[in-house]
Amino acid sequence: MEHELWITAPFNRFLSAPANAFLNMVGVRAEDPTHPWANWLAIEIVVVLLTIVLFAFLRSRLSVDRPSKLQHCFELTYEFLRAQAEEVVGHGSRRYLAYFGTVFFFVLFMNLIGIIPTLESPTMFLEVPCGLAVATFIYYNATGLKANGAFGYIKQFLGPMLWLAPVMLPIEIVSHFARPLSLTIRLYANMFAGEQVTNTFLTLVPYFIPSLFMALHVFVSFLQAYIFALLAMIYVGTAVAHEH
């Protein structure tokens, strides 16, 4: 059993019964019923709560005349994501911007929280990137069906010419089902490797050198959040395109 972090302890102490009830409902039994909460899940919930508090705080202090530095940072991030979505998805990209922004900030905050001593990045556990990848897979297919209709969306899998359909259909199906795997492995592998390198140097050398790797960890956190959001934009863009 994994070492229980201090942030997970209150979940197992006060919320073990609801967790066990849910697991029993879906037919899963916890290895230790007294400790059903995993570290990654507890930290992920904390990240969600902190994100809600952060954006509620930011919204309550929005100002046109005297914007704060925090507001400037988020406005620049919003404009960057909006420009990227417009370039990748094209006209009508704003209707999908909420999902892109949510994915970007959620992945980013989960990546960055691992820098705090005694905490871990939830994205270094396979379950978290997998869940995000599956959610993105469902989302872009749903947007494609909504934008093109069932028949129009299925036509995208058949290729440019009807006689190519027997060849293109299995290739497209395999390609689409490989996307969640690609999203999962990319995020998981990068964050797991970065976390292990940082922790190793923290134990070997207590000063200066670990800070360099922590700075690298911050860079990788931003980069992986951007790549995940960008790939989500690409998948949505291809799904809602009408030229197929």
Structure described in brief:
By secondary structure, the chain is an all-alpha fold.
Annotate the secondary structure layout.
Blueprint: H1 9-14, H2 16-25, H3 39-60, H4 69-88, H5 97-112, H6 127-155, H7 165-204, H8 209-240
What are the salient characteristics of this protein?
244 residues; single chain; 8 helices; 2 domains; 72% helix; mainly alpha
Write up this protein.
This protein has 244 residues and is mainly α. Helix content is 72%, strand content 0%. It has helices at residues 9-14, 16-25, 39-60, 69-88, 97-112, 127-155, 165-204, 209-240. Helix 6 packs antiparallel against helix 7 (165-204) and helix 7 packs antiparallel against helix 8 (209-240).
Shape: globular
What is the overall number of helices? 8
Structural class: mainly alpha
- Give the tally of structural domains: 2
